């Protein structure tokens, strides 16, 4: 089973199946929650960092982007 590292430099590695299993349990407990893609959590994390004033380079490293261009192209609309 392939392991995923949710965020760069995080000590937590999980399998895709274990993440999805836990997420389904949460959704089953509260059917008022909207189902979103796991990848959307990653995007939300980046958006929160930007809203808190983090620099592009910090966001790039946290997301593990190989190039700063990827980070800028994806998130520049969130910077003032």
UniProtKB/TrEMBL annotation:
Keyword tags: DNA recombination
Domain of life: Bacteria
Organism: Streptococcus pneumoniae
A single GO BP: DNA integration
Cytoplasm as UniProt keyword: no
A single MF term (Gene Ontology): DNA binding
Pfam families per UniProt: Phage_integrase
PROSITE patterns: TYR_RECOMBINASE (PS51898)
Lineage: Bacteria, Bacillati, Bacillota, Bacilli, Lactobacillales
Annotated ranges, domain Tyr recombinase: 1-80
Protein name as catalogued: Tyrosine-type recombinase/integrase
């Amino acid at each position: 089973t392939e392991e995923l590292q949710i965020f760069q430099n995080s000590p937590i590695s999980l399998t895709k199946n274990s993440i999805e299993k836990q997420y389904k349990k949460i959704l089953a407990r509260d059917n008022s929650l909207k189902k979103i893609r796991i990848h959307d959590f990653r995007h939300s994390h980046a958006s929160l960092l930007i809203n808190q004033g983090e620099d592009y380079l910090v966001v790039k490293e946290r997301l593990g982007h190989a190039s700063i261009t990827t980070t800028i192209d994806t998130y520049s609309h969130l910077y003032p």
